[in-house]
Amino acid sequence: MKEQNKYMSAIEAGKKWGVGRRTVTVLCSEGRVPGAQLVGNSWVIPADAEKPADARIKSGKYIKGKTIEAALVNLPSNLSDGFKSLLVNPELNVQVYDLLPIPIEIFAADGTVIYANRAGFEMVGITDPSKHIGIFNLWKDSECIRLMGQDVLDKIFHGEAVSFPDFPAPIQDVYDRGVINEKPWDAATMDLFFLPIWDGDVFNCTICFFTVKNMYKGRTDIIKAQEYIEQNWLEEFNIEKAARAANLSLRHFQRIFKENAKMTPFEYYKKIKIEKLKEKLLDLNLNIEQAFAACGVDYHGHYKSMFKDTVGMSPSEYRKERIKIY
Description:
This protein is of the alpha+beta class. The chain folds into 3 domains: 4-46; 62-216, Beta-Lactamase (2-Layer Sandwich); 220-325, Arc Repressor Mutant, subunit A (Orthogonal Bundle), CATH 1.10.10.60. It contains 15 helices and 10 strands. It has helices at 10-17, 21-29, 68-71, 81-86, 118-124, 142-148, 150-156, 171-176, 220-231, 239-245, 250-261, 265-281, 288-294, 302-311, 315-325; strands at residues 7-9, 37-39, 42-46, 62-63, 66-67, 104-108, 113-116, 162-168, 187-199, 202-216. The strands form 3 sheets. A 5-stranded antiparallel β-sheet has the order 7-6-10-9-8. A 3-stranded antiparallel β-sheet has the order 1-3-2. The chain starts with 6 loop residues before the first strand and ends with a helix.
């Protein structure tokens, strides 16, 4: 009994240190807890071990010669100012991320994932973090290299701040690797933003924020049509091309699409178009007419009234209201 008391479990260490079991597991897997041993699938920690200082995230880091504060302006707009301030707080603990609804992952400088928050695990449907944390390597993953390009990944893991819009999340690959037992959705597109953390001149890690744009579950042919519409939202709507993307006859496509998406193909196109208009209206470098032109439509045409009917306010009213919030 005396020998057993020399060690504590990850749960006990978490209670002692005031962190979650997942954080303890990450610290042990990184070799930052002296004397910690992996027994089966669980870590045992010396009973007198002290919590390691969090070396991954500190204040005063630099991003290619810029302070973190200078890079925060490029973070996703749906992050609150209060959350952004946490990144420059010297007392920051990654456990705070578990409280946030925004999926977040932290990757070490070699590309290995070392942390994911609760929203991140729930988004993908991961129930066993040990199948992902410390195993998945974004920099070396063949599927991500195919989807993002080696040059983009090289920039990320050489410490650059990188935005990657419309990332087609490879959920099938996650399933095939045995990380999840079933797919929570069949396809999704996301905007990714990588914020590098530097320790002086040494690149430490990068924090990835996920903004989910679209998520689909259902027939693969209809998913292909939805993806086609989203990728070609700037062009005039062409239902024949959308039907060809789904490899369906026009008549069959219209019926199946509405059954699955609960709206017609044109209503789906209009929804995407309105969302893009809303995004451009928040760009104060553009006047309202220019925002409409950037979306391929004339402000003086029918989209002005369509916007008001859909959103419940005019474009100018929407801009004023949203700018107040931000």
